[in-house]
Specification:
Strand content: over 45%
Number of domains: 1
Helix content: 10-25%
Number of strands: 3
Order of helices and strands: EHEE
Distance between the termini: 21 Å
Radius of gyration: 13 Å
Strand order of the largest sheet: 1-3-2
Shape: elongated
Structural class: alpha+beta
């Protein structure tokens, strides 16, 4: 297992619930890391205009390979 700390920026849409934000975070973390990840913790750190800044702690499997 690998541990990752990411600082991400997400566009805000209104209204945005915590479950919707978490789903968006999961998708963005998967894209950033290039593999499925599991969120351990996330924290909203700032909101600037139409952007939310979020700190995310996630894990990935070390032996993951998307090559078939």
């Amino acid at each position: 297992m690998k541990l990752h700390l990411l600082h991400l920026s997400l566009p805000l849409s209104s209204p945005l619930s915590a479950p919707q934000l978490e789903q968006s975070l999961c998708q963005q973390v998967d894209r950033e890391l290039g593999q499925p990840a599991r969120l351990l913790r996330w924290s909203l750190t700032a909101v600037e205009g139409d952007r939310a800044w979020v700190e995310v702690v996630a894990t990935t499997d070390e032996d993951y390979s998307d090559l078939d």
